Amino acid sequence: MFAKKGRFLHRKSGLVFFYAMVISALSALLIAILPNHESPFLFAVGVFSLYFVVVGKRALKFKFKNPNLLFDKSIALIMIITSVLMIILPVFLYQKVNIVLSVFGIVGVFSAIKNLRAYKNPERLRKGWLKMHLGNIMGAYISAATAFVVVNQFFPSFYGWFIPGIIGGFFIAYWTKRVESQKLKDSFE
Fold first, then answer.
1. Which end of the chain is less enclosed by CB atoms within 10 A, N or C?
2. Helix 40-58 crosses helix 129-151 at what angle (to 10 degrees)?
3. Contact in structure between 40 and 101 (CB atoms under 8 Å)
């Protein structure tokens, strides 16, 4: 995150992060559905981690013209379906709303819809690849930090589920603003 963007250290550490997150997310998904280990929370973290890290990595391809977006559209639709299920399944199964899963579900739906909209405009997608990369990779980092905070019980009650996202949201806003101001600056030079 702090290495000079586009340089060797950033690219190599980014690949390590990507593969570590994919392995962690797939492990979380598997563990969350094992008998006597069922955990909708762990499953939600796995889905979010995997979605954001894959979309963040795929965004690097969008800087080139005419990327094949079938895979990207498919995973966005899967994310929407999973997110909606996070919201409605607790109501059907337990007759109550699960706040954490609902918040994750709402964030997932909005993120996937935002990405689907971006996929409709290839030129805008090409210009916005860096913001998409930053936002989604940071989203994956937030989900990893959330899992770490929750498992180690750094905060009481459900606060651990939201504090990393709030802090990470400020980082995403900061980096997005920096990218936008740099593009504005470049357009005047």
1. C
2. 160
3. yes
* Segment 12-69, tens digit of pLDDT: 999 999 999 999 999 989 998 999 888 877 887 788 899 999 999 999 999 888 889 9
- Judge whether 23 and 37 are in contact, CB under 8 Å: no
Digit-coded pLDDT (tens) for 95-117: 999 888 898 899 999 999 999 99
C-alpha triplet 32, 1, 132: angle, nearest 5°: 75
